[in-house]
Amino acid sequence: MLDDRSRRSEIAVATRPRFSARAKRAYKTTQRLALHVSSLVFALGTSYGAAMAAPNLAEYNLIFGDDFSGSTLDASKWNTGLLWGPYLPINNEEQLYVDTLGMHKGFAHSPFELTGTSLKITATPVGNGVTVPPRPAINDPIWDEFNEYRYNGPTDAGPGYRASDVNYLSGMITSYDSFRFTHGYIESRVKLPAGRGLWPAFWALNSFYVEDVPEIDVMEFLGHQTDRVYHTYHYFEPQNNFRKISTPSHTTRLDDFTQDWHTFGMEWGPKEIIWYVDGEEAQRVDTSEYDIANQAMYLLSNLAVGGNWPGSPDADTAFPATYEVDYIRAYQRKAPAVITRANLSSDYELMFQDNFNGSSLNRNLWNSSYLWGPYFPINGEQQIYPDMLGEHAGYEHSPFSLDDGVLSIIAQQVDEDDLPEAPGSNSSQFANNPSWQMGLGYRDPDSTTFYTPDYVSGILTTYDSFKFVDGYAEIRAKLPRGAGLWSNFKLSNAYYVDQRPEIGIMDALGNRRDDVNHYNHYSEQGFQADGFITTGDDYTADFHRYGVHWQKGKIDWYIDGEIVQSTSGPGVSSQMMYLVLNLAVGGDVAGDVNENALPREFQIDYVRVWQQKLPSQVANNIDEQEGTDDADTDVSAEDSDDATADEADTDVSAEGSDDATADEADTAGSAEDSDDAVSDDGDNTSAEDSVDDSSDDQESESTDEGSAGSSEVTDDVATVVPQVLQPANGSTVTGSQAAARWGPNETAVTEWWLRAGSERLGTQYFDSQRITSASTTTRTIRNLPQNGSTVYVTLYYKTAKDGWASVQSTFNSAAAGAGNTQEDSSEGSTGSGEEDADSGQQTVDSISDADQFSFPTMLSPIDRGSLAGASSTFRWSAGQAMGLQWWLKVGSSAGGEDYFSSGRIDAEDARSVRVTGLPEDGSEVFATLYYKNDSGTWNASETVFRSLSATD
User: Fold this and answer.
1) How far is it, in rounded angstroms, from Cα 865 to Cα 867?
2) How far apart are CA 38 and CA 528, in angstroms?
3) CA distances from 552 to 61, 250, 283, 572, 909 (A)
């Protein structure tokens, strides 16, 4: 439906500059709007009415739908604007889509009418009292509520949006925030309007502007050609200078499509796309001719007017013109309860495999370096991964060996003189690989970040050859034994957008031979993780099969054909991912290395990925499916992989969580982030694991006056959660070290983990220290950058009941002599810089009460306490980080998603707000307090409590 390849869109996605040269070009180029029929070369006709097969819906589940039987559009299912907003001109179209659920909420004119059984989208000429919604000024606060929307003012390319170019008001619905899918069947029953210049469409568009930017036009119709509808598939070839590929615009013909209702469907599998009209196959394309899209897409239905393809309406076009939609539905093929060899053979397509039968690695399948290259240390690991398929080809200490169909990744100790040479910053290696991090400290004793790897090992990824969404991935491997070895097989997110997921299929430490770790890492309001451990026999003694079945909303982990762990919910992402297998040595996770055990081999028999194919077709047409509202609401939990807000909330629109997490786009962390602290040597428990869902039912000792049994709130409740007291939040620290101290607290902490780094989530850190002594409250932070930049200190704490949680503070790191504003630094200040020779821990001065509130803290409700009643007053301390704006979200999930109440509070001196709509059913409720500091950055603090009825 979209057009104009030459136009560069301002659509931006949250990303980080860690792309290969190819990916970097992809990201820049794919900011263009994904396209439509500007280059119609062919129009192949299919004669309607031929006896062709229908999709076999008996093998599908309905997972999203709307029968439009209500009185208003369902804001939990639909957006009413394109992703980039209403003010970006495309295709020279003459309409403006009135964003009734977004920016134009409350505008006098709506293009939508709900009849009780259908949705009417009506295009109306401007004039005779119908006016164009004014474009807000560039500094209007409303743009903050719709971060994805773009202000389109004059540029060198043209004047941008002009109200005088808008001749009609019309409507668009999309499922961008509520539903996206990869492979399945979608269908809509519609009534089409006649008239030149009318251009209704039902289509699917890629959720993220990455990779090949696919678009599948299920149905497009030109109002002056009433005897035909068009079906087209578009995408780009990133590997071919982003050449645009479009199928011929296949047509289905009938005497007049405007005289009755018609159904238009599209079935999409990993190797083919099939279009249907009224339940009969109309056209198909497959991998024999085209690359079939393999990423998540969302649904759109709209009525455009004018533009490059249909041309302008003429005097015979009747207005108002209406495109009527009876229903829109999406189906997903039923998945087997358990993946077996039999159903892999019958119901799945083998999409990727390497059986390692050759004498060398297949460079068409594998990369042998992380995206950021071999010289950027992560997790404190002590190996280098030489890029054997690239810049280090021919290196004499190769970590790869192939023998009799088995690949061995070998970890070995290497003398410094035998390591790969250290390239300079102007090296051709970095010129050839612009996504590589310089790693200036590699073997450079003059660098402040000097390091020399002690070991050589290997990594393989499919970044350039294979990425996918949803499927079954499996490896057959024999794991290495030995302290300090860390073998992995995982899926890593291909582009740093949205949830930035990572799925650990097999994650094992060489000194924990009976344990295999599995995890799902993702970002919502911060780093979150579902982590599991499978304990069994000695996994290093023989080969085992390790697999993961990744589905929409669910992940199952397998060992030797049996499901060993599962997780489900919105944390299961729909982003494209690629395969990674590697053997790390030493570092923060693997710990000390037993050098006597080296060299050691991580042996891999094969790597394979399957995706579910389309079911067999049936000979008869689709039976009419009435559908009900209940069917729609039953799938609401599945409708959204990544929805960020409830648009029906009157206090805040869909931008709520985007606004409150604007800084996260730049702090998501690279693909290695989720490796960090996945497991420790003691119990393989993730240091970043979310707080366990369990919590006690203890009544809050100080609830607000609106709750039953309330009592006075006292300041000492602020010490329930451990806090970073030094370095003080917002202070400046000089020198390469700083004294860290934390507490006091009322939480039964069993161990700590302290990290200091350049990002809010602690994923790019200078120092990382696991502290197993619960009584320790001081440490020295080392390796500070001293360049005036912001440093983030994350204090993780673990309790026996709740697992891991964290708090955070920030400070500036400056060179010595820059004017330290911290009262005592780690270098030479009395009482805080001395280390105990026996324990290796610092002794510190007593902590003053003023340090208790170094950042805003929720006072009521108390964390892990309870509140009674449907409404309560929430209170917080301001802390030393004064909020220029506050935002409180209260809901049923971490990060304030799925919230009962959400409100932006612009008063800097606000310290309380009344919250209504609490569930009163004893369930856990998450209260997230966002605060915006004077640098314009949002931060957040979360409290979990139980909501009880007023009589409890």
Assistant:
1) 7
2) 43
3) 12, 30, 27, 7, 44
Structure tokens at 289: 């001719």
Q: Do you find a cis peptide bond into 320, omega within 30 degrees of 0?
A: yes
Cβ density class 487-500: b for 16+ within 10 Å, e for less: bbbbbbbbbbbbbb
CA-wise closest residue to 330 among 63, 118, 58, 56: 63
Tokens encoding 912:
């309380």
The tens digit of pLDDT for each residue in 38-93 reads 322 233 344 333 335 789 999 999 999 999 999 999 999 999 999 889 998 889 99
Q: Give burial (CB, 10 Å; 0-12/13-18/19+) of 71.
A: exposed
pLDDT tens per residue, range 278-321 = 999 999 999 988 989 888 999 999 999 999 999 999 999 999 99
- pLDDT for res 333: 95
Task: Please calculate the CA angle 670-674-676 and round it to the nearest 5 degrees.
Answer: 105
CA distance 653 to 75: 10
Could you tell me if 1 and 304 are in contact, meaning their C-beta atoms sit under 8 angstroms apart? yes
Average pLDDT over residues 111-133: 96
The whole-angstrom distance between residue 882's C-alpha and the CA centroid of its chain comes to 30
Which tokens is 925 given?
């409720």
| 500-505-509 Cα angle (round to 5) | 110
Rounded CA-CA distance 228/19 in Å is 43
Query: Residue 852 corresponds to which tokens in the numbers above?
Result: 């208790």
Query: Which run of H or E residues covers position 629?
Result: helix 629-634
Specify the amino acid at residue 912: S
Which conformational region is residue 677 in: left (phi greater than 0), alpha (psi within -120 to 50 degrees), or beta? left
| Position 831, amino acid | G
Q: How far is CA 340 from CA 182, 334, 474, in A?
A: 22, 15, 12
Strands 383-384 and 455-456 turn out to be parallel
Across the strands, what pairs with 889? 902, 928
**Residue 672: closest CA among 259, 372, 257:** 372
Tokens coding 621: 């047409």
C-alpha distances in Å from residue 751, one per residue of 760, 777, 902: 22, 10, 34
Here the tokens at position 15 are 């990303």
Residues in a beta bridge with 311: none
Pull the structure tokens for residue 233. Answer: 């598939």
Model pLDDT for residues 441-481, shown as the tens digit of each residue = 999 888 888 899 999 999 999 999 999 999 999 999 999 99
| DSSP assignment of 897-910 | -SEEEEEEE--TT-
Q: Interior CA angle at 14 toward 9 and 16, to 5°?
A: 110
Q: Distance between CA atoms of 847 and 708, rounded to whole angstroms? A: 36
Q: Using alpha carbons, list the distances in angstroms from residue 200 to 170, 172, 324, 389, 510.
A: 11, 10, 10, 49, 60
Across-strand partners of 228? Answer: 253
Contact 770, 687 (CB under 8 A): yes
Q: What are phi and psi of 86, to 5 degrees?
A: -85, -10
pLDDT score of 724: 84
CA 916 centroid distance within chain = 30
* Comparison of pLDDT for 32 and 735, the residue scoring more: 735
Distance CA 557, CA 518 (A): 7
618 and 56 in contact (C-beta within 8 Å)? yes
Q: Distance between CA atoms of 184 and 406, rounded to whole angstroms?
A: 36
Task: Output b/e per residue, 136-154; b: 16+ Cβ within 10 A.
Answer: eeeeeeebebbbbbbbbee
Contact 112, 680 (CB under 8 A): no
Residues in contact with 99: Cβ distance below 8 Å, sequence separation at least 6, in sequence order: 80, 81, 85, 86, 105, 133
What single letter denotes the amino acid at residue 537? D
Give the containing element (helix H, strand E) for 876: strand 872-877
Q: Please give the single-letter amino acid code of residue 108.
A: A
pTM: 0.63
pLDDT category, 675, cuts 50, 70, 90? Answer: very low
pLDDT of residue 822: 36
